[in-house]
């Protein structure tokens, strides 16, 4: 009885946490795309069966994720087509049972047969590049184009013993007139597979009809007609933050690709599944070149793009920058706004081959007074989204309302250091311009060098009453992660990055010059 209960619990756990394998052929482009974007599905993937070796790129990706890769070379085995189907199916069955696989996703060319289909009934899902039951079998896209089909698309279906004949789970479509190359159709399989993976426990089948719990089901027209009679724009987004992306998703822009900088804020916080990660210029340029779009929207791209060579006729390349251009061009304008006491804000501009140059389309200003660096970062990204919305409403055309600011450029040095004997204004601006943990400035004193986050003047008459005889640079108090000291007849409160540094400092110590 106990064993039976334990088995039931284990079986239930397997349903809740799927364990995935892939069967892929050819160039394995769909699976490699999932690796490139570091898809969540890979966390549950234990096995890849690949029957078109060698493919070193797939091998390396699998190795990096500790995923077992089984390669089948039919030529070496000397098998005919029927024998290949049997050999593949038996290989899959043995490996799936050995690794306790719950579901298999197929992007392969061969037919699955035999015991595999019985044991894993409605657990093997194939992704076919047509709107089934139309154009089953090989070369489905070519068949659809030859027959002048109005729509192209993909079908995800459970595998049975027929050819692309199993119960249909979901479909995606694209108008055939939009077709440029096979990727226009095949790339739609990526969000499909991620949706199915995320909702695997909500999929059920009854009388050969599939249903997905809480999914929408309503009549639709294709193509849809936009109420504002404006043509839907196809775009590619490149960035490391999310506010502008959220604004795009609420607009009538259709995103063809979302390219997110690896390990960035956007990568760590994005809720979408259908995005691609990049960390090199080579990867980024390749993704741009292989995409059909009207607008490229850049927001936090770390690489300078060769716009003149990339841009095709009628395409627009747009950048959203967190400053009032042409003021504070460069990588770190938000730090520069505080450091040089310049007006903060955001600009949308047409891109060219130079850094943050091109016709300015819209701007939003942020009053700088009393803002910490952390808060200014957040407000700047909100301002970017507002500026983008204005530019979109103006159809990305310049207006006469743009104020021209004095041109400047700022990219922060690797290490920020400042002497405590610098004048108070410079000291305050420099420390506060870099007041977050990973870029904190270093203050140089006679006692040592310390990473600091914030400094501010304390104006309080009581302090003057209790400290009439204090000397320049003398520490009045140490508390929490702060010290209070006197400099140029002003009381300054300095906050340290590391609390342990406070233990090195004591009241009546002199931070600079002679004395204790």
The count of DSSP E runs of length 2 or more, i.e. the number of strands, is 22
CATH architecture term of the largest domain: 3-Layer(aba) Sandwich
Mean pLDDT metric: 89
CATH class (first level) name of the largest domain: Alpha Beta
Which key features would you list for this structure?
Rossmann fold; alpha/beta; 25% strand; 3 domains; seven-stranded mixed beta sheet; 516 residues; 17 helices; disordered N terminus
Any overview of this molecule?
This protein is an alpha/beta fold and 516 residues long. It has 3 domains: 2-212, Rossmann fold; 233-393, 3-Layer(aba) Sandwich (Rossmann fold); 417-504, no CATH class. The chain has helices at residues 2-16, 29-36, 56-64, 74-77, 81-98, 115-119, 140-146, 182-186, 189-198, 243-249, 265-269, 281-289, 307-310, 333-339, 373-393, 424-432, 461-466; strands spanning 20-24, 45-50, 68-71, 103-107, 124-128, 151-158, 168-175, 203-206, 209-212, 233-239, 253-261, 276-278, 295-299, 316-321, 344-350, 360-366, 417-419, 441-444, 449-458, 475-479, 482-487, 490-496. Helix 10 (243-249) packs parallel to helix 15 (373-393). The protein is elongated and about 95 Å long. It starts with a helix and ends in a 20-residue tail after the last strand. Mean pLDDT is 89; it is low at 1-15 and 226-230.
Give me a quick take on this structure.
With 516 residues, this protein is of the alpha/beta class. It is built from 17 helices and 22 strands.
